[in-house]
Amino acid sequence: MTVTDNPTGGIIGQARLRKEDPALLTGEAKFMDDLVLPGALWVNCVRSPHAHATIDNIDTTAALAVEGVTAVYTGADLAEDWAGPLPCAWPVTDDMKSPDYWPVAQGKVCHVGDIVAVVVADSRYVAADGAEGVVVDYSLLPAVISIEDAESDQVVIHEGLGTNVSYEWPLIPDPEGVEAAFANATHHVTETYVHQRLIPAPMEPRGVAAVPAPHNGDMILYSSTQIPHILKVMAALTVGIPEHKMRVIAPAVGGGFGCKLGVYPEEILCLALAVRHGVPVRWTEGRTEAATATIQGRAQRQTIELAADENGKLLAVRATLLADMGAYFQLITPGVPLLGAFLFHGLYDVPLYSFTCKSVFTNLTPTDAYRGAGRPEATYAIERAMDVLALAVGVEPDEIRSLNFIPTEKFPYDSPAGLVFDSGDYQPALDRAKELINWEERRAEQAERQAAGSKMHLGLGISTYVEMCGLAPSRVLASLNYGAGGWESATVRILPTCKIQVVTGATPHGQGHETAWSMIVADRLGVDPDDVEVLHSDTAISPLGLDTYGSRSLSVGGTAIWMATERVVEKASLIAAHMLEANADDLELTNGVFNVKGTPGAEVPLAEVAFAAFTAHDLPEGLEPNLQAEVTWDPPNFTFPFGAHIALVEIDEETGEVEIIDYAAVDDCGNQVNPMIVEGQVHGGIVQGIGQALWEEAIYDEDGQCRSTNLGDYLVPSAAETIDMKLDYTVTPSPTNPLGVKGIGEAGTIASTPAVMNAVVDALRHLGVTEMAMPASPMRVRRSIENAQGGAV
Amino acid sequence: MIPAPVGYIRVDSTEAALAALGEHGDEAKILAGGQSLIPLMRFRLAAPSMLVDIAGITELSGISVVGDTVSIGAMTTHSALEHSGELAEACPLLAHVASVVGDPAIRHRGTLGGSLAHADPASDLPAAVLALGGTLVASGSNGSREIAATEFFTGFLESALGADEMLTGIKVPVSTGGWSYQKFNRRAQDWAIVGAMVAEGGAGVALVNMGATPLRASAVESALAGGASSVEAAASAAEGTEPSSDNNGDAAYRKHLAQVLTGRALRDAGME
Q1: Residue range(s) in chain A whose domain bears CATH number 3.30.365.10
Q2: Cβ contacts of residue A198 below 8 Å, gap of 6+?
Q3: pLDDT digits (tens, 9 = 90+) for A331-342
Q4: Which of A779, A780, A783, A787 to mutate to test the interface with B (most CBs of B within 10 A)?
Q5: CA A758, A198, A691 angle in degrees (round to 5)?
Q6: How many beta-carbon contacts under 8 Å exist across A and B?
């Protein structure tokens, strides 16, 4: 397929304001909790306060006595309501151990937040009062909190499985080669890093409403979800409602970051209770509830080893993971580490590669995809380790990277992990980032401060990254045992008055699909983007789709839009040719007008063609009326965006406070449809990644109690903590799709965490600090300095 | 988060508020700006049966400077303190401290009296009034009385206010001598992990979040009075303190911070 540098009528590439924003900014947009559903019953979930316990008795008497409480159900009461346990769509190995996960716990609880009973009442407040009246007797069991304890199997959480180890997944194409490379290496770097658990914390927590339709036994499920299409299939199977009787609608969704890429107990519960009660049943998650009821991200311990020759040229990379699944599998829990499995060698040309992941269950909230999902983890490991290698070789961190970058002439690049990187040109991004941050001057300033004995230390940290996104070629997903495909569908329809209706299966939850899709269609048709309406997020309107995650929407869903537009243009050109008594091959569509190439004046506007297609009074023989086309696009490969980020931090030695004082990011996501949306994604992604480096951590005590369950204790950075970032781009189009696009939704999150942590260590290395765990909190930094200096300073 | 059922009355005079407190006793809580009480109720950590909303008592809002005394109504918001030109001249420390409480939304709702009555050792304003040597005015069924700030904070979230009393006003001396507030936190809107406050050229030094109550750093004050340098005085900042441990810092780290921040505050206030 050829690269189309800019396939353009001049609209693609414009920084246009987002069509979505007026409704979002004025409160016009309706989120889950804004929905008015007369007669709805409200659910309150009674949740386990213990991480691991058997349920001895549940007394619902007092709850049922609360005026307005309609019913209280325990796990036993609802056991017959399920056609099956909650689904996991990614059984990564054939022998993967998978516990049953029921919407309401049956007999025992396995994490704080596990649902033990549900109170159904006529208002949200009464349901909460009723929940206070449910008395549950527990017998406590020892809680398995650390992944090391989990691996030891001293306490087995799911007795039926016989072990806490769920699976081991190796990717070692040439084991002997790897061994030999390490045996012969001049430099052998071994580093261990921990990715703390993160709470996704979108602005809008989850919410659900199941509404029985008045006729036909149909059911409408409203949910604040990223995946209405996948949810429809999975919920139908779990509750036993025929899929064709189910309609799923995602209203305005206030962010997800992966945590709404699930099929949750509350969705299944509302459906089952709506069936039981015959009225709408709804639930809105509280912020504190979300801290333990919604999936968490990251949570793995990584060991990465680098083998390199005397110059620092990499010979082999070996990565070994121990990953925390939490108490149960959510939708794609086991697959998250695999999304990083291919990328622990980063964007470096390495002949030999070894990856192994062992996954264990703990008595903590299930983990699942969180912005970047696997790729931030992989990038963190290789980028932190490359700094250690640079130190061992005695070169600057930029030099060790330049030495090892995959050379531009090697693309498409056959990676040692078995992928084919589509396109890349890595050195210019790093050069530009160094220029933006004033690398040489900053290095000099850092040295001056050190020489002067300043207690305000400067540190520079580089992170260069490549990611695989555009999920995903269906055949590749099949090889990874994933339970669905990776295609996306699109319909483009030119209405009689030449307004355009577009239907997408890529469900947005804040990204700006309406704007971007309008621009793609308007660019090709030569119409105003405001004349293009994008329909989505309702399975009755958009029956086929695989939704939004993994930076897939533009490269997969946007490509489907582009191809459907092309198909509509092909049909319109047949009608135009008929109207002009010309040959369709001689026509071109420019600025909304078909004209005969080389024949001035021989033209017909698209609007007239659209109306002719509608009236169908005089169409070419055999041609169907109307202008619409539907395309399902299955990408031939992933896309591989890349870039270089550099952070400059200043550390206050006395307090341990880390402040980011400058940040440069040069990203390459191929062609850009709307640079303003790209910029927003980069800004948000960088800050979210910095959040992991400096602030965010789901803190658990030894009993499995979460100590960071609200936004006062779980430190999501705010605008006040961010700085003006210096952003720039290189453009290396992807050859895998006609738009030449790659994806930018996760890049910032992937790149910024290691950039900041490398900068933190760089700032303190002269004090003897060689390692820093995340988040680099003031106390942790201060203690590291004290320890390195042999006690209190 | 859903609070437990609660009654609500809104009053327009101090007398009416006191009458409501008399009627409902321990089960009633005064609702001022609600920035601390409402979250506690939503977590069901507090479940009063009756809220007495005093936002309608207009005479409880305002700032006046008469002679050497600044008088501030209990319902004066942080934002009003932050933006008062009069206060900026008469007591710049208090105006500054008000400007670093929480975020703008909190500062527009939260009140000085509410913050003091809540008596949270991690709050900024109680320590400021303490450092300034302020006085609190309480009204009760037996009339009103004045309580020195040094006597007001009796324990964690506990004050000298009786169950039948409400805080109506705060008096601080006009104070334009060297001052500083060093608030250390991880995000702009957070409570201080530790804060160090210097008023009137070191005559008053107070610490935020270094124990169950806001504290006067009396060892630092004595050292300064005895002619110690800022470095020498700051070394005793943690003396006698028993700070708590939490996610952001253990007791030892807090004690270290108290010394560092007190030293910085003293120097920022102009002391050698």
Answers
A1: 21-28+487-633, 297-471+637-788
A2: A296, A297, A298, A299, A370, A691, A692, A696, A697, A698
A3: 999 999 999 999
A4: A779
A5: 45
A6: 55
* Segments of chain A scoring below 50 in pLDDT: 1-3, 6
Neighbouring CB atoms inside 10 A of A213's CB total 11
How distant is the Cα of A193 from the closest Cα of chain B, in angstroms?
21
* Phi and psi angles of residue A174, each rounded to the nearest 5 degrees, phi first: -140, 80
At the topology level, CATH places domain A297-471+637-788 in: Aldehyde Oxidoreductase; domain 4 (3.30.365)
Task: Return the CATH superfamily for domain A32-141+205-253+260-293.
Answer: Aldehyde oxidase/xanthine dehydrogenase, a/b hammerhead (3.90.1170.50)
Task: Let me know: does A752 contact A440? Beta carbons within 8 Å.
Answer: no
Q: What are phi and psi of B189, to 5 degrees?
A: -90, 0
Q: A721 to chain B: nearest residue by CA?
A: B187
* B142 reaches A (C-beta below 8 A): no
pLDDT at A164: 98
Domains in chain B with CATH codes: 7-53 (3.30.43.10), 61-173 (3.30.465.10), 180-268 (3.30.390.50)
Q: Which residues of A touch B4 (CB under 8 A)?
A: 129, 132
Tell me which residue in A287, A655, A713 faces B257 most closely, judged by beta carbons.
A655
Supply the pLDDT for residue A792. Answer: 59
Q: Do the Cβ atoms of A779 and B5 come within 8 Å?
A: no
Which residues are CB-neighbours of B259 under 8 A, at least 6 positions away? B234, B235, B237, B238
Q: What is the pLDDT of residues A120-165, one digit of tens each?
A: 999 999 999 999 999 999 999 999 999 999 999 999 999 999 999 9
CB contact under 8 A, B250 and A779: yes
- Cα A73 to chain centroid distance, Å, stands at 34
Give the distance, in angstroms, between the CA of residue A549 and the centroid of all CA atoms in the same chain: 5
Interior angle at CA A185, CA A183 and CA A190, nearest 5: 90
pLDDT recorded at residue A3: 42
Instruction: Provide the shortest C-alpha distance from residue B141 to chain A (in Å).
Output: 35
- CATH class of the domain defined by A21-28+487-633: alpha beta
Question: Which chain B residues are within 8 Å of A287, Cβ to Cβ?
Answer: 1
The span from the CA of B165 to the CA of B152, in Å, is: 13
Q: Please tell me what DSSP assigns to residue A405.
A: B
3-state secondary structure of A307: strand
Report the DSSP beta bridge partners of residue A321. Answer: A302, A357
Provide the token pair at A618: 């005089």
The pLDDT of residue A530 is: 97
Q: Any residues with CB less than 8 A from the CB of A743 and at least 6 apart, and which?
A: A469, A470, A551, A552, A553, A554, A555, A639, A641, A669
| ipTM of the modeled complex | 0.97
- Residue limits of CATH 3.90.1170.50 in chain A: 32-141+205-253+260-293
CA distance A129 to chain B (A): 7
A520 residue type, one letter: I
What residues of A are in contact with residue B248 (Cβ under 8 Å)? 777-779
Name the token pair of A754: 């290691």
Q: Which residues of chain B have pLDDT under 70?
A: none
* DSSP strands (E only) in A362-505: 413-414, 420-421, 456-466, 488-494, 500-504
Predicted local distance difference test score (pLDDT) of residue B25: 87
Sort out which chain A residues have CB atoms less than 8 A from B247's CB and list them. 699, 707-708, 713
Angstrom distance (rounded) from CA A267 to CA A224: 10
Residue B176 CB neighbour total at 10 angstroms: 12
pLDDT score, position A6: 47
> Could you tell me if B145 lies within 8 Å of chain A, comparing CB atoms?
no
Task: In whole angstroms, give the CA distance from residue B11 to residue B37.
Answer: 18
Among left, alpha and beta (phi > 0; psi -120 to 50; other), residue A741 is beta
